[in-house]
Amino acid sequence: MGLNADRAFIAVDGGNSKTDAVAATADGRVHAYVRTGTSSPHRLGYREAVDLLGKLIDTVRAEARWGSEVPLARVDALLAGVDLPVEVERLNADARSRGWADEVVLDNDVFALLRAGTSDRNAVAVICGAGMNSVGRNASDEWSRFPALGPTTGDWGGGEDLGDAVLFHAARAEDGRGPATALCAAVRAHFGTGTAEDAAIGLHFGRFPRDMVHGLVPRLFAAADAGDAVAESVVERQAAEIIAMVRVGARRLGLGKGPFTIVGGGGVLAAAPAALHRHLAPILEAEFPLASYTGLDRPPVLGAAWTALDALTGATDTAAHRSLAAGIAAMEPVRVAY
């Protein structure tokens, strides 16, 4: 490998359920693609998350057949759970002390979503996976972001919140405190229980893993599509939360009156549920008539890889960028567990 021309880098996109890493070079060639479980420091711990990144970097280097003679120009790791400035500082200090590359950058995974969705300098991204988060930027390189710690910082509408809402309404419908809803049957079918209460008790005692709650989301959207009023009210609330994040980001950055790009992604939005977009589309069009909406249809790790490539090339749309996108799309990740 001619490293002067083909500088090597590793890019990582880490979510609450999976983490993708690619090894690539500045000419746009993809040399390896690896997937493992969560890398979120909120779930693993700060040092443990950086330790996992080190193992992942070793694995993806081995898959790429890069020995010690291949230095890394960059490692860009964009992870769920890197939310606060103090967390960004702490994790970067630890990661940079490991000597992985000439330049090491850790930040939140919403930046991978934003870059994978657009190179527009005026843009707002909203990620809706297990949780909710948003980031935006303008042409003056000003940024908007949220703490995104969950309900304590005003966030609602991620997959865990939606699943909890399904359980809430199913329980109340079942015991008479709330209106009848198809969500009762959805909970029973999902957990294989006789009642929604049985499902709640099973979760309480650990008979069902907490991760199963997120799995109720497709059933919520199906019930809303079928006309269930209670399910529809939950979806309407989620749409309002997404709009609120876009509205605040656009206002902070002075984007509301002009053209800008809105990027939506994460597990929930990537599924493009009709029930949700039925509420989102007319409000977005009314409030931001000059904005364009992009639903991310490519792996967010591409955004992390493009972030690294942008830094190495000083450009955002080159043959190398297109080659990188094609290479990632053509590869199946090697799955590993640590």
From TrEMBL:
UniProt keyword list: Kinase, Transferase
Cross-referenced InterPro entries: ATPase_BadF, ATPase_NBD, Euk-type_GlcNAc_Kinase
GO MF annotation terms: kinase activity
Family matches, as Pfam families: BcrAD_BadFG (PF01869)
Domain ATPase BadF/BadG/BcrA/BcrD type: 12-266
Domain of life: Bacteria
Matching PANTHER family: N-ACETYL-D-GLUCOSAMINE KINASE
Protein name: N-acetylglucosamine kinase-like BadF-type ATPase
